[in-house]
Amino acid sequence: MSVEAAERPRAAKGRAPDVFEIGGWVPMREHRDTEEVDFAIVGTGAGGGTLACKLAEAGFSVVAFDAGAYWRPLEDFASDEHHQAKLYWTDERIVDGANPIKLGGNNSGRSVGGSTVHYAMVALRFRPEWFQARTKLGYGADWPIDWREMWKYYGEVERALAISGPVTYPWGPKRPRYPYRQHPLNGAAALLARGAEALGIQWTETPIATLSAPRGKAHRCVYRGFCTTGCSTNAKQSVLNTWLPRALDAGAEIRDLAMVGRIEVGAQGRVTGLHYHREGQWRFQRARNVVVAGYSIETPRLLLNSACAQFPDGLANSSGLVGRNFMVQLNQAAWGQMDEEVRWYKSPPSLAISEHWNYEDRGKDYFGGWCYMSQGPLPVTWAKELAGQRGVWGQRLVDEMTRYNHGVGLKMVGEVLPYEHNRVTLADETDGYGLRIPRVSFSYGDNERAMIRHALGFMDDSLAAVGARERWKEWDDTCHLNGTAKMGDDPRTSVVNADCRSWDIPNLWVCDGSVFPTVGGVNPSLTIQAIACRTADRIKAMASRGEL
Predict the structure, then answer these.
(1) What rounded mean pLDDT belongs to the chain?
(2) Is 501 helix (H, G, I), strand (E, B) or coil?
(3) pTM of this prediction?
């Protein structure tokens, strides 16, 4: 499907795209705008898509909205980095602060299925102590959820995504085997393993959400390497081809190319529905409950843009924390050249990992943790890296790219602490819908700078241990978005409670990475989906007691 064709909704007239068949369709229940549905969900990514599935399976009427297109991977995705930029949220946003972040393919998705359509598929559990980081580790904030409860939901998500991982995982409490066997190491992963062993630390195959054996209509991974631009074979297990087909089967409705602009609040101080733009016009969907799951920029943007007479500072914002405590994760890297060919683009990019510095607190002059993984940047991405980070241009860049198959790299995913001055606010400028655009302010603290120094030094040592030459360090990169609608147990210091329910408006919920009180040193998608599963179970229990 062309980008132009994507401007017309596909999920309509009682049917939605079948993501497993070229040109295929599946039946979809539809609701009238005037029909008061049980739940209107804004966003269909790791939080909203998972929650839509679970709520529909529990018998609730659900309509889930997404500003992005509804893709069929087998016909719509190409092995082309430029073409696949259609998956990214690239609307205008203003970034500032001492360390303005990059936005786009590294952290923002605009598709049904959200950022999981182009994520790196790394599926890691939080270290248990991170759920009580303030109490047990002396930094950040405590979560209002016990790690043992989250362990149960991690298992549910790992089964739903058919995670491929090692037989035993070296860090943290014992856990059951992953549903599918681990993937074999590629050249880049084997170098991480050799370096870790040379430095005397543990490593393992990375648990990832791409199939190592067939599953239903989805084929096993064929190691094309275009994972982070959208998988064209459906081996990648994203929300698009796992939770959402289940949601449709259970009676949920998905509305693609539907931009939600404002949540309406009635005279009784409860939300009554939402305003959304689709097919050239603004419409209003009535709902008994609204769930905001737009991720850590669009979620606070919508809450703040929905300010009204009853809530002049924005919805769910009596604490003043909507938009605050914005967190990314550190994504710095060490790079080098090997004499032998590595062909790092073959296979998923992060097939080996060490979480040593997530679980080892000795030898640090900072709080928090980080892991590091093998890398396999695609050619265009690598060329941009060389030009942007090293200032390599012209013939020098051409010459450097001829050595592409000899490259080797390690990248960290590191914890950023929650600071209230890192935040999302509304700019005065508006977008094509007439909505105020977000301003994202971000600066590192001393803690982050200390972690970066340590991680880069360690990763560089690992590359040196395997004989990499012409090594260099990438000091400026971030990934993932979290925070801005903090979960907690006190309405004065948080936006939602442990059930993702707004303190201020009982039928307004937030369910995505924005509720994270802290981010940990692992990719967040598994935790976001686990929170969504827990939230659905809590809603089902509350409904049975008449507490909605």
Answers:
(1) 96
(2) strand
(3) 0.97
